[in-house]
Amino acid sequence: MSEDYYKVLGVAKTASPEEIKKSYRKLAMKYHPDHSKGDKAAEEKFKKISEAYAVLSDKEKKKQYDTFGSAGFQQRYSQEDILKGFNLNDILKEFGFGGGDFTGRGGGRRFSQAGGNPFDGFSGRRPEPVKGSDLVYDLTLSLSEVMNGATKTIAVNREGASETLTVKIPKGLIAGKKLRLAAKGGSSRSGGPSGDLYIRVAAVSDGTFQLEGQDAQIQKKIKISEALLGTTLLIPTPDGREINMKIPSGTKHKTKMRISGQGIPYMSEKRRGDLYVNIDVDFPADLTEEQKGLIEKLAEAGL
After folding, report:
1. Where are the domains of the chain?
2. Is residue 241 within 8 Å of 265, Cβ to Cβ?
3. Which of 157, 154, 184 is nearest to 169 (CA)?
4. Yes or no: is domain 5-95 CATH 3.40.50.1220?
5. Which of left, alpha, beta for 57 (phi over 0: left; psi -120 to 50: alpha)?
6. Exposed site from 156, 171, 252, 272, fewest CB < 10 Å?
7. 131: how many CB neighbours lie within 10 A of its CB?
């Protein structure tokens, strides 16, 4: 879960730069390794407050964080992006600390959500390679693209720059599912592999069908006479065809009928989900005199 940087530093969202700096200095004095040697919890706390300060002390990063929120900011910025240009050594020296390799610039230490110890520089140990951060890209597809697959060009923020990628979208990629692109996420600053990029379908734009997993649903209205006597409806399918469906006599209002195998394709299988037709019997609000007379005759006949 993404950290709320304001809560991490214990300041309000309206805090001034001086208030943010003052709060960070107080926490850094408390949790710095020189004051908490061997305390793993303190090391983790120091890592978190330093990451929070790296963002909130930078005018542009703070603006992006306030705009997109914690989760949205983490999706758009890798750990390397967050710490780029942030020299913790200089800040700690200003606070009266010395030593340790904590720079956020090229070749220096990195604070990683995926693991790693930000205090290895104090002990002289070489940090173990850590995988770069994973990124998530939200993509909206049309129903046709879900049914048939597509090739999409997307722009992803990697290492502080926009990178254009061409992505082949398989058929059946529905809302909520993710497509993994290996090693297309954030780079590792410690020699490890790059993180992965996940393409996530946020929504499917279509006004005719409602999708639930690989199944599709559609609403159809019929007249009272059609409900009583039965009829045949022409039903559109998600792949653009039309098929005949027989409505039996005596069909009730809100009846759900299933057409097997006419839904959304499964990504790794040759089968499809089902298409459900929700029947609404249309009860007219107003009747003509002729219609009233006919219904009265039906009532007299016991119907």
Report:
1. 5-95, 135-204, 210-282
2. no
3. 154
4. no
5. alpha
6. 252
7. 20
Residue 203 has which token pair?
């929504």
Helix, strand, coil % over all residues of the chain, rounded to 5: 30, 25, 40
0.70 cut: is pTM over it?
no
3-state secondary structure of 6: helix
Q: Residue 270: how many CA atoms within 13 Å on its side-chain side? A: 0
HSE toward the beta carbon, residue 210, CA cutoff 13 A: 7
User: Coil, strand or helix: which one is 45?
Assistant: helix
Whether 120 and 108 have beta carbons less than 8 Å apart is answered as no
Backbone angles phi, psi at 111, to 5 degrees: -90, 120
* pLDDT band at 112; cut points 50, 70, 90: very low
CATH no. for 135-204: 2.60.260.20
CATH of region 210-282, choose from 3.10.20.70, 2.60.260.20, 3.10.450.50, 3.90.1150.10: 2.60.260.20
Q: Which of 124, 125, 149, 154 is nearest to 139 (CA)?
A: 154
pLDDT given for residue 116 in this prediction: 40
pLDDT tens, residue by residue, 251-266: 999 999 999 999 999 9
